[in-house]
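ligand=flavin-adenine dinucleotide
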Amino acid sequence: MPAVSTSETFPEIREAVRRLCARFPGPYWRALDRERAYPTEFVRALTEAGFLSVLIPEEYGGSGLGLAAGCAVLEEIHRSGGNGGACHAQMYTMGVVLRHGSPAQKAAYLPKIASGELRLQAFGVTEPDAGTDTTRITTFARTDGDTYVVNGRKLWISRAEHSDLMVLLCRTTPRDQAAKPSDGMSVLLVDMRQAVGNGLTITPVRTMLNHATTELAFEDLRVPTANLIGEEGKGFRYILDGMNAERILIAAECIGDAKFFIDRASAYAKDREVFGRPIGENQGVQFPIARAYVQMTAAEHMVRHAAALFEAGEPCGTEANMAKLAASEASWYAADVCLQTHGGFGFAEEFDIERKFRETRLYQVAPISTNLILSHVATHVLDLPKSF
Ligand SMILES: Cc1cc2nc3c(=O)[nH]c(=O)nc-3n(C[C@H](O)[C@H](O)[C@H](O)COP(=O)(O)OP(=O)(O)OC[C@H]3O[C@@H](n4cnc5c(N)ncnc54)[C@H](O)[C@@H]3O)c2cc1C
């Protein structure tokens, strides 16, 4: 595409990520998608190149850059036709340890996460019976001497089989005994290498996209109390910080997806001849692509604005939500336009469009669904009456 982005942030990082991604082209992702296999080689290459530790401060072995650098990395992965969902969690889960962990925890974990010796890819929040209403989680950690004993279930926990550590949100006080519904939840850092088979069972869940997602069952899993992050009972607040980063980073992935679809649709519309001329000469074909570009560009500005607020330590919950909504709608519209532009070929696996189409649809549901963002804007920004 000539100039999808007029002023690219972090041009050197983007160029380096593009070069790395060129080693993992469509056939690589297609084969993994078919088998629902994890992109181990791709994640290793990203780790070794230092791209997964751009947000870790230099004193712990990372690059010490702000959230916008993480956005640039993930956007380029998605624009190239790949998928950062296999490893993006490390960027935002690491922040929970960085911002709320003790000096000893940071010294013990962050350098190893930065070097790739430890993978922190799993973020355990959602439960089968709690849904979006996180305060209803029931996975419970009770203290027994110097350990917590964890019981409960989590659902849709991605990358659990490919992670050494998991940031786990659980209740340490039952909801009806807490001062507020959002009190009484705590964050534990679970060492998956010790947990699996000793109270933690992981069951893969096959989905319409290759996302390595799983169900977790905890039966008397013992976690040292030393692995509590921050103060007991305040975990929900710690997780919210991480959620803003997660929404902004995932919005950047959506921007990358939208650019991928716009690139592909434009190229195909110029090339494909029907009725003796390129289909792109027809305004019925070019206008939807142009509209996708307009929507993507508007969303890209929103993502940059949200990232800048996050980096400045300003409140950014509303902006992170709006960026995620705008970007996920832009990528989904671009996906639909790209598929339509390709006619029947859009459905063929070898074009990678149907795969990316399935992948980008996720972002209107996870990590938070569109309705919940609209509800936030309606009640917190526009002061409309609450419906729940
Ligand atoms: C592939 C995949 C990977 C995931 N990875 C992770 C992960 O690694 N870690 C993790 O913790 N979670 C993960 N999730 C979970 C994800 O965050 C949730 O699916 C998402 O937050 C929505 O929750 P839910 O599925 O329980 O939907 P529900 O809360 O059951 O909602 C269902 C639908 O109803 C709508 N709805 C609900 N209440 C209202 C209301 N009051 N008003 C209007 N509409 C409403 C929602 O918008 C949604 O469309 C993943 C999910 C998927 C599918």
